[in-house]
Amino acid sequence: MSTTTVTKSPVGAPDRAPAPPRRADAEGRIGLRANLRHIGALARRNALQIKQDPESMFDAVFMPIIFILLFVYVFGGAISGKGNNDAYVNYVAPGLMAMMGMNIAMAVGVGINDDFKKGVMDRFRTMPIARSSVLIAKIVVEIGRMLIATAILLGMSFLLGLTIHTSVLHLFAAIGLSMVFGASLMWIFILIGLTVKTAQAVQGMAMMVLMPLQFGSSIFAPTTTMPGWLETFTDYNPLSNLADAARNLINGGPVAHSVWMTLGWALAITVVTAPLAVSKFRKKT
Question: Which of 3, 63, 127, 243 is the most exposed place for a label (fewest CB within 10 A)?
């Protein structure tokens, strides 16, 4: 028969309660490897959600097909001349790569808002994980969706007559640049999703951002035909810089200025909005 030895506390000393489990409220307590592991696990969870709900991929699958067909056959003749659609495909397809990034990014804000309403984010905030890992995992999965949308867009563009006048490496550089800029835009929409109360409000505010940037740019038509004040706006529009960079990488032409401007915009947007989004995520009730 075994006996258990019980050690008594000294007389007058208070009994010690078991230490509560530690929570990683401060991200500084979590190492880089643990943070990456959390991002991987959360990204896998988000990807499994898409697998269980294939309808959430409809925008990434069908939107590029609709856009390239619509703009080439509705506006191509008016802009490039009747029967000259091939030339317009080479003009508009790189611009639509930039547009895909913005539209996919909008879905992140809607998803974040919806997850809070369902209580999913409240559960994540009680776990010993870095708060930023939840948001970064969302961005990782949305970049995957953006890659799928871009691949479909380019596939349709090749069927319609898109020609690469540079090299495959230049094409990959254009895709990579679109991914970097799209990822930076996601922080804006995450912040909007954490700020407004409903998914409908997220979409409404997103459209107020999307419409002027998309149509006041060089995505669909050269800016030389625009009024002077609008042409000035397009010069500073980051979507114009991205569209011009992708277009010149694919068709040939000077790329240094537009590439550096796009990277500068992406860095500035991320530096400003990412800390605000993480702070809002911590404090949101």
Answer: 3
User: Could you give the CA distance from residue 282 to residue 23 in angstroms, rounded to a whole number?
Assistant: 14
The count of residues in the chain is: 285
- 94: how many CB neighbours lie within 10 A of its CB? 28
- Within 8 A by CB and 6+ apart from 160, the residues are 68, 69, 72, 85, 86, 89
Q: Are 74 and 189 in contact (CB under 8 A)?
A: no
* Joined tokens for residue 237: 């529009």
Alpha helices in 28-73 (DSSP H): 32-52, 58-70
C-alpha distances out from residue 5 to 8, 59, 239, Å: 10, 66, 73
Half-sphere exposure of 165 (CA within 13 A, CB side): 14
The series of mean pLDDT values per 10 residues for the chain, 285 residues long, is 46 45 48 77 82 81 90 76 74 88 83 79 74 85 91 93 91 94 91 86 84 86 82 87 93 90 94 91 75
Give me the pLDDT at residue 72, please: 87
* Cα-to-chain-centroid distance, residue 74: 28
Which candidate, 270, 86, 121, 113, places its Cα nearest to that of 190?
A: 113
Determine how many CB atoms are found less than 10 A away from the CB of residue 45: 13
Q: Which is it for the CA torsion 59, 61, 64, 70, positive or negative?
A: negative
DSSP state for residue 210 in the 8-state scheme: H
Output the pTM of the full model: 0.81
Nearest to 247 by CA among 284, 219, 211: 219
pLDDT reported for residue 29: 63
- Which of 204, 162, 166 has its CA nearest to residue 72? 162
